[in-house]
Write a structure and sequence with these properties.
heterodimer, A: alpha/beta, Rossmann fold, 16 helices, 40% helix, 24% strand, B: alpha+beta, Glutaredoxin, four-stranded mixed sheet, 3 helices, 4 strands, globular
Amino acid sequence: MRKKRIKTGFSPGSRPKCPSGIKGFDEITGGGLPKGCPTLVAGSAGSGKTLFSMEFLIRGALDHGEPGVFMSFEENATELAQNVASLGIDLEDLSARKKILIDHVRVERSEIEETGEYDLEGLFVRLSHAIDSIGARRVVLDTVESLFGGFQNEGILRSELKRLFRWLKDKGVTSVITGERGEKTITRHGLEEYVADCVILLDHRVTAQISTRRLRVVKYRGSSHGANEYPFLISERGIFLVPITSMGLDYEVSSERVPSGISRLDAMLGGKGYFRGSSIFVTGTPGTGKTSIASAFAEAACRRREKCIYFAFEESKDQLFRNMRSIGIDLSRWDRTGLLHIHATRPTFSGLEEHLIAMHRLAHEIRPKIIVIDPISNLTEVGDPLEVKSMLGRLIDHYKSNKITTLFTSLLIKGANEDTSREGTSSLMDTWIQLKDIESNGEHNRGLLVLKSRGMSHSNQVREFLLTDKEIRLLNVSLSSGVVLMGSSRAAQAAQEEMDAVRRREEIERRKWLLERKRREKDARIASLEVEFAAVEEDLTSSIRMEERQGKASIETRKELAKLRKADNKTTTR
Amino acid sequence: MYELRLYVAGQTVKSLNAFANLIKICETHLAGKYRIEVIDLLKNPQLAAGDQILAIPTLVRKLPKPIKKIIGDMSNTLRVLVGLDIRPGG
């Protein structure tokens, strides 16, 4: 008899929904609670049942024009008003405007003597009257199980409750019935047997002294729904549920680029920087400049007048400002203009899920273009690596689908978690920048390497990463016989090279000069030889001429002599 | 003087039985010292909240103080007497 369940006439998927107005919940259930049907919300004390149901009513009254009746079996109207006042809702005003009617049902067994047959028609009359008086479309019964403490005859109670849920359905109101979590059953008194359409479980657990709230849709007849446990947060703006899971790989991607704030790094990333909407992972051991890279990125975003949220899990806001000022990055300026939102908390301040929700909520409210999470590794303090990875996956998917470029920094402990990081979170990241701490010759130097960057050709070179009081600089490293040199050894190497160059220049000069000298020497020799030659030539020519002249003269002389001797011409001319 | 208020919802068997049983008990133990007011919640539903009525029928002892409540059709006379704080024969 008790096993019999209420059948619904809706075919799967076509079921009309009633928007709950609870952020995130309507997304995981494809629209909200089953319209015109009762929903059971079960959970242990303090799991947020009352708030969940109250928010359902308030949202209905304020946003969907559906007045609601809150029948409370525990808290009275004043207590409820106080509770929701913390959410900024004026319940008394809503009651006065006939948007919400609160009926406090007090059940105390000690006052009541049972003398025979009875039913709970009085409850029906009250509820019916309340519904009719404000034209309610939504009803909450919180916590109807209190009746079990007020009446001895459980048989009557059970059949009456069953009748009540049936009656609510016939009335066509969308109702939420809350119930205490049972040990073996979903609710202590097995209400889930009567409310068969939709069952929601709220959970509140404490792991490592940190509490996390979770919601799970146990059952939703005739509707598909997210089956996971979804973390939720009770914030000053009501319940906030994180609807996403790491399943969405269907977001649009952008080929737009976002500068990193460091021009040389942009050059390493195919000349233009990161992709818009991508996830960037900056890892490094302590003191390698992760925060500096992150801040440069954030500052560059603000300069472009893009909103940016900076989640700082290590430093306070002022500390971050001071530290970044020392390398020439003035973040406080952007904080004042409202472009930069710095959200500094200790990771241990709340559970992992709460951080996740806070990150969602802020992104939802501020709608930034850039988000920096510095560092993500600190969150492992409050959750195990698997949880952190799943959280990151959800976060990244969420940000990507909103085209938010996200930069995560992660602290590596040398030798300890370098591999974990590689296997774990890095696969979720599009760009991975590794900062290295290179120790040699008694000094630490920072090196930067773009380990991967999906969808772009990127530099495979290690650059020396220098933090000066004005800027972040990336320098080429020196290679000397296959060894990378950085810091002072790079400087020493550079000096050595400089010296070598000078020496070489001098040698060239010297040789050039030698050559010149030789040339001059040669020219001089040529000149002197010419002079010598000229002298000899002249000498010889003049002597040749003299000889010729003498030869001519002797013939003339002989003719003269012959004439004088009157010699026989015949003899002389013969 | 006992001031009693009986809440019913329409003329149901349980309500009629309760009324009959109540009269009988009162005549036996409180003859001349009681007054019964019957409230039909189907006619006056707004009255249910005032006395925190859930079960039907409910009998509320308004006087003498303190207020006492008994539920059911009052077929168990002894329990009715206990509930109204009346000593049998007294």
